[in-house]
Design a protein that fits this description.
280 residues, alpha/beta, 6-stranded mixed beta sheet, 6 helices, 25% helix, globular
Length: 280
């Protein structure tokens, strides 16, 4: 394989948070503008040869009906589209909460798929949260207790707009990574919440999950959104890349193309998203 030929390339969007709402200047949220930005991003990405395009959560800001405003834009893309939920995707009426993953065309809340010799792992960071469990009193009470414990410990990510994963999902992730290592696959993990470096936006279980991921030399990257300012870190041999939020400006876009080579990851940023070269 030539140094100039990527092993795989794919597109990345994060946090469009579309809603037909006026801007929120204090938070730098321009909800309505995201519809045009998504269309522009997909038009640019259609000019690229990509394995797929992933949106790293918060497709909408709130409101079940807004999925039907945005999802049809992706149907025009020539690429496969991959979605995973963020906290805002669960800001819908309680009767719709059990259907969010299905609405996002996900085969399961957390799952994995192979492409071009890579194993892509899609995590469900919203599994244990106050917002995704509003229809399930027992699960919501458990999440409230988890958050209270983090607050008592003074954790900087003890926020009700963050969330965590179950022990079942943690062991599932370990099993998927074990099998990928056995099969000689390189791994890219995608989630909504940051894991590393430490941040007030991080997954409630960020330290444990980041340590697990970094213990595998074949995991080249963990990709996420949620923290709209973006971030970057490396733990072990794994790069932790936090993509910037699309919703944060009235007109400037934010999306990227990721090329993975045998010796590096090349991120080509568009708009506010930074371009990076990350050695492997």
């Amino acid at each position: 394989m030539s140094r100039q030929t990527p092993l795989i390339r794919f597109g990345v969007l994060a946090d469009p948070q579309y809603a037909p709402l006026p801007p929120h200047p204090t938070l730098n949220r321009h909800y309505q503008a995201s519809k045009a930005k998504i269309a522009q991003a997909l038009e640019v990405l259609d000019g690229e040869d990509l394995a797929f395009v992933v949106t790293l959560g918060d497709l909408i800001d709130r409101g079940w009906e807004n999925f039907d405003e945005i999802l049809p834009l992706f149907e025009t893309s020539r690429h496969d589209t991959v979605f995973l939920p963020g906290n805002h995707d669960f800001l819908v009426a309680p009767e719709h909460l059990p259907k969010v993953h299905e609405k996002l065309r996900m085969p399961a809340p957390y799952h994995h798929f192979g492409r071009d010799g890579f194993r892509f792992v899609v995590m469900d960071g919203c599994e244990e949260s106050l917002f995704a469990t509003a229809h399930h009193p027992q699960r919501r009470a458990s999440a409230i207790n988890r958050l209270a414990g983090l607050e008592a410990d003074g954790a900087i990510n003890a926020k009700d707009w963050n969330a965590g994963i179950s022990g079942v999902q943690f062991e599932w992730l370990r099993d998927v990574l074990d099998r990928a290592a056995w099969d000689g696959e390189k791994v890219v993990i995608m989630g909504h919440y940051p894991l590393y470096p430490d941040s007030d936006h991080n997954l409630w279980d960020s330290a444990e999950v980041a340590a697990l991921i970094a213990s595998y030399s074949n995991v080249v990257a963990y990709l996420n959104g949620h923290q709209h300012t973006g971030n970057l870190g490396q733990l072990g041999k794994t790069w932790f890349v936090n993509f910037k939020g699309m919703v944060d400006t009235p007109d400037e876009n934010a999306f990227a193309v990721v090329d993975i080579f045998s010796d590096r990851i090349e991120i080509t940023g568009h708009g506010r998203e930074e371009s990076r070269t990350l050695p492997l």
